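Message: Study each token:
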Amino acid sequence: MSFTKVNASAATLTKNRTEDSIVPTSGMCVTCVDGCIGMCEIGKSAYRGHEVIYPQPFGVITTAGEKAYPVDYSHFNILGTAVGAHGIEADSDKAIFPNVNLEVHFGHDKGLKFKLPWIIPGIGSTNVAKNNWEGLAIGTALAGTGLTIGENVVGMDPEAVIKNGHIIDTVDLKRRVNLFKDNQIDGWGATIVQSNIEDTRIGVQEYAIEKLGVEIVELKWGQGAKDIGGEVKIKDLKKAQMLYERGYVVLPNPTDPNVIKAFESGSFKEFERHSRVGMVTEESFATRVEELRKAGAKYVFLKTGAYRPADLARAVKYASKYKIDLLTVDGAGGGTGMSPWRMMNEWGVPPVEIHSLLYQYVKQLSDKGEYIPAIAVAGGFTLEDQIYKGFAMGAPFVKLVGMARAPIAAAMVGKTIGRTIDDHQVPVYVERFGSTRDEIFVTAADLREKIGNKEFENLPTGAIGLYTYYERLAQGMRQLMAGSRKFSMDYISRDDITAITPEAADISGITYVMDVDKEEAQKILTAK
């Protein structure tokens, strides 16, 4: 069985000439013919080189790996029961799914409150994030959940004012923070400002705390898409030079006269901007956490990626030792922007495996009475069944599920539908529901009541799309939880799911389906 697709992918706009006849080990056509124009990745690399490393077209897509892992969350099923209720009276008139409480409270003082138990982890300087931020920020605020402003937003802002290596003012970060804050309702949800090496050097988080009133900051060790720093493509020479001057790694060197000449002649059309890789030490981590708290941060988060198990252990231990408020652990295979395609498929610990290790490590510290931060898991979650399984896998420690691609997709679709409404060109597929906001978006009446008619009319449809997607997830979660008789998030447990393959059971420690309730079933059957 092959888990990997090699040498051709929609992500890199490549394909094989003999699509039904491929060598599985190399991905090459069985017959590679002299005279082929080079449609596969090898062929395209022969004339575009390093450009073919990255998914395309950049700026208008989100990307995820297409590798099929031997074990994933589909190898687990959710268990229901016909008996009792947890978190509500065992009364058929009260234990109904609309009464399931999805709220979560977390942080060292339980001062952070989310209406819904998920968060958008860091999405930052990519075009797809910037172009959809209105929908993401406003939709998240209205839903009462969390949104993380990712790395490099300030550094990429051409209007940012940086003097003597420190940020003085920035248009983009200010806009992103305020879009959320201006639409936040009764303190529900939160916006978080993340930082990488370049951000830290120019004081982005200190600026966000002091000038923008941000209470939550996040340190970033990585993500599930790649084990190098953030990347984007730059089509403008002046911007590439600006980023080079701000200290980013820009390839090729946009100040080199020969490179400038080649760019202007059309030899290549894009520069690459890269961030640096971090060098984690306990001392530097402790120092930075203390600096942020002294700067006024009320809550400090840590986001780590799909690195090797020893790095996961460091993240868990440091988060415990230095009283981090939320630790997010991302599994391999995801990406919202400019991750190298082969890296996205072939690098890192997959979600089920890393989340299983995470549970083991956190439980080990918990059993010794050590402080345990709230935990968020990420890595390809999109719908309510997967979200439920993520909570159960890490129960009782997991408080949030992180999703980025799916919320971006919802915001993009909402935005696109809004444009078709404005242009009076609603597609037939959508037109069957109507031709206005109120007819097409099923949450329109709810939103009108929540924010008022005038505000609803001015609401970006990207925000309505995200809010409506979240409404679907919420109802789906309530239905699944009611079936398990769990009526608040605190009651989800590891025995609410079962492994449907022995391999999934062995990796996760979740009971194999044929072994579930063995003793209890025998007691029932042998009772007189």
User: Anything to note?
Assistant: The radius of gyration is 24 Å. The chain is about 40% helix and 15% strand. The CA atoms of residues 112 and 389 lie 23 Å apart.
